[in-house]
Amino acid sequence: MKTNRLFYKFMLWVLLIAAFSVQALSVYFLSLQNTEYALAFHLISACLFPYSLWKLMPKKFENEQSVMILLWLICALVPFISGIGLLLCFTLSAYFSKTVEVDVTENVSMETLPDDILENLQLAQYNGSSLQAILDMSDSEDSRMQAVLKTRQMSDQEAIPILKRALLDPVDEVRLLAYSMLDKKEKFIDTMIRSYLQNLGEKSSKKDSILHFKLAECYWELSYLGLVQGKAQTHVLGNAYKHIQATLKDTVDNAEAYFLQARIALVLDLFEVAEISLSHALTAGMSKTRIAPYQAELAFMTRNFDQISQHVNAVDDNTKKNAVVAEILAQWA
Predict the structure, then answer these.
(1) Phi-psi category of 111—alpha, beta or left, where left has phi over 0 and alpha has psi -120 to 50?
(2) I need a surface site. Which of 130, 216, 259, 285 has the fewest CB within 10 A?
């Protein structure tokens, strides 16, 4: 690209030199009192001078064709000295030109910023939707790389959808970075699973119950975060269900275990198991506000639409502020 620009400038100067040469021939024929040749060469030079001078002018005049017309009129109506005069004027004006500094802030009114502006900016900086927008709309490779790196400061639930979107990026470096971060999250969970499996059976039954619960959580997380898909997801959910059942064999008052079993059963379409598990979790002491969204989901999946309103109305006030939940409440409450 730089070579093309240099070649273009070189050709313009060649054209300018040719214009001077043709104008010199015009003067020569005029000295021989051959007016016809003198006029012909003058008109040719009047055509060569304006274009070359116009293209050598500052870029702001590049699209102003009226400037070239003005230069042509000067070269045509003022013979012999017009080209040299114009070139001399342009050279002197470029040499003696001064940069005009304007204080653009002079008339700008300063508004008082809110006290929590930095906190708001920090929250917005790591907002999932803003990072998603950068990946979807930014033309800057560096900006998209930074968006992927910012997911390290987000929860896995928020970060993984963004990283999956980055896997579709047209630039290899962005895709590889997103893939490596997803792979790192999956390997971390796999490492925990292998560690728990190695310790299983080596301790008391109570310790085994804890390990089965942790294994169920790990397998569930692989599926819930979307780190596995298709048949692999079905296999992982099956392992999660097997380990949560093993946990519940040794305990009858573990609300968290019943709650996790209900969530796994909902995904596996084991609606009867999900209903019983949610009921046991409630009996074991888990709050109604935490269980209510899943009871509402279960009622919807089993087409018990008349029960949905009583469950969604039990959702806590903070959850009701969520935009998605607010729309559900407007529909079902």
Answers:
(1) beta
(2) 285
Task: Give the phi and the psi of residue 223 in degrees, each rounded to 5.
Answer: -75, -45
Helix (H, G, I), strand (E, B) or coil at 151: helix
- Asked if 46 contacts 72 with a C-beta cutoff of 8 angstroms, the reply is yes
For residue range 153-165, list pLDDT tens digits in order. 888 888 888 888 8
**Phi, psi torsion values for 158, nearest 5 degrees:** -85, -35
**How far is residue 40's CA from residue 46's CA, in Å, rounded to a whole number?**
10
Strands in the chain per DSSP E: none
How far apart (Å, rounded) are the C-alpha atoms in residues 275 and 299? 9
Residue whose entry in the numeric block shows the structure tokens 């920090």: 122
Q: How far apart are the C-alpha atoms of 304 and 181, rounded to whole Å?
A: 42
Residue type, 4: N
Spatial CB neighbours of 203, under 8 Å, sequence gap ≥ 6: 211
Classify burial at 12, counting beta carbons within 10 Å of its beta carbon; exposed 0-12, middle 13-18, buried 19 or more.
middle
Q: If we measure between CA atoms, which residue out of 165, 196, 194, 200 comes closest to residue 181?
A: 165
- Cα separation, 300 vs 237, in Å, equals 22
Q: Does the predicted model carry a pTM greater than 0.70?
A: no
d(Cα 262, Cα 244) in Å, to the nearest integer?
A: 10
State pLDDT tens for residues 90-127: 565 655 555 555 544 455 455 554 444 343 434 345 45
- Alpha-carbon distance of 55 to 68, in angstroms, equals 9
Token reading at 6: 């240099």
